[in-house]
Every structure is written in structure tokens, then in C-alpha cells.
Write the C-alpha cells for this entry.
Amino acid sequence: MQFFDKSLAELEVYRSADAEPADFDAFWSATLAQARSFDLNPEFVPVDAGLPGVAVWDVTFSGYGGQRIKAWYLRPAGVDRPIPALAQYLGYGGGRGYPHSWILWPVAGYATLVMDTRGQGSGWRAGDTPDIPDGANPAYSGMMTQGILSRDSYYYRRLYVDAVRALETVLARSDVDRNRVAVTGKSQGGGLSIAVAGLMPEAVALCMPEVPFLCNFRRAVGLTDANPYQEIVRYLKTHPQKAEQVFSTLDYFDGVFLARRVQAPVLCSTALMDDICPPSTVYAAYNELSVSDKRIVTYRFNGHDGADDEQKRQQLAELAQRWPVVQAPAG
């Protein structure tokens, strides 16, 4: 992949010209109030995952419409005091998989809840959560245009609510330090991290999105020919008369507008050769952050991999600097 987007100097000052819906806050306030009318009812079932140093629970909680969402909860074994925690969200098409895939944070001394992604979990890691309450199985891809003609029926309304409720599930744990809870994830998971930090600004102490998706839709859909944004392009190719209706829906889910509401410190990343989540769309959200405590790591020669291992090293250093973990005494 070659450089295809704006130069770094242009990215650093780029601002989206898209207009935020006048009733953006009212829509999300009503949506979350409706979601909270259902009891969160979190269930934590201990699991022997073959990880002696990590305690694992199979989690179920109520997401959008009271529908039951799966997750994993992991924390360092033998540490009973409240510790910092991360709500972790997944990339497009992936599910929660197995606990051993998520041991980085508990090995480093932090708790984490890994939310399964409704209706996905069949593209690159298996999931267990259907999108609708009648038990339909998770399917392969194709979520971007589900219900896209209305903000009320759009797929991401359900997923954003699930992500908020996942954070509330973390906050309900007595073994979590509620003042030190982060949100993180890559690609779609990064977009969800921004969304949750914007929708629950008082609860998020740190936001760490990696190469985030779901930002600056109106630019992204016309800029890249890669999926998942291409799902919207193909839909509009078939339904050209519905273009403005589609974008009017997407405006309510745009990370650019949600970023304006984030109050937590932010560690973000992007890559100049990323044709899946183009760097200008990431900077469009990043440049809307009003917090002074923010940093973006830009990888010049990476694509959507986002220099994964290096960025994890950056995140570990960020957490260690902000929330140093006191190790339990040996024996």
C-alpha cells in the first residue's frame, strides 16, 4: 500500500466540515435511558481456562434492549484488592474467542473485560452473541448497512449501547478501582472506545483507541475502496437515491462528534498506509478532542496493522506511568 491520504502536516490540522445533528445529545440520552430501563444483571461464572496466573470468568450482561451479551473477565490470580481495569472492544468481524487470547492486561497487573460483538464473531475469531433476541447465530461480516435508513434501527445503535453497558459491568465489580478504568480496542474496537468515552465521560479515566474505525463517515466512504466502508459504497451504488438518508443516520454514530464529548486523557494511533481506517478519518476525531492530555502515535510505513506490538508497548508504558501496579508479594 502506498501513501494515499493527506500529508502528515495536513493531517495535524485537518478538521471535518461535517455538521453535527442538532439533537445528537438528546438522541443518545434517550437511547441510554431506554437501555438502562433493563436490569444490567451481570453474571460471572468462574472458568478454568488453563491459565494458572489468571483468574477468568465467563460473563453475561444485558445490552441493548435487555438482550444478553457475552464477555470474558480476566484479572491477575490471587490479587483480591481493587485494581485498575480496561473494557476492551473488538475489531470488525471478530468475537471474544478464548480467554488465552486476552492475557496481556492481567499479566501486566490489570483486570479486563472483553466484550463479545453481537452478530459478528465469524470473520476472524469466534463469538457467541446473536444480534437479535430470537437466537440467530453470529454471521460473517455485512453489518455496516443493517438498519442504516434510520438512526433508531441502525446496527451500531445496538452495538454502542452494548459497549456502554460493558463498561457499566466493569464498574459494578467490587474488585475494580472505579477511578482507574480505561477503554481500548483496535479498529472497530477503537471506534467503540471513543464512543463509550464520549457517552460516559464521567466514568472513563483513559481512552486508548488503536487505528479507530467509525470516524468521519462522509469522507471515509468516498476515500477508500476497502471494506468495511465499501459495504456502504455498494449499498449506495444500488440505492443512490438514499445517499443523504444514509449519511444522516451515520452522523449520529460518527466518532468525530463523539470525540468532542471525551473528557479522559487519550492515547491514539494511526498509520499513514492504512486504507481500511484512513489516517485523515482518525485525525478528524483526534483533532476534535478538547482535552489537553492527549497523544497520537502515527506510524508512517504501516497499514491497518497499526504496528500492533509497538503500540501495545506504548499502551503498557502509558498504563505503567499513570497507574503503576503494586505486585503481590511472592508466596
Observations:
- Residues 8-322 form a domain with the Rossmann fold fold (CATH 3.40.50.1820).
- The beta strands are 43-47, 54-62, 68-76, 83-89, 111-115, 176-186, 206-210, 266-271, 294-299.
- Residues 119 and 312 are 27 Å apart (CA to CA).
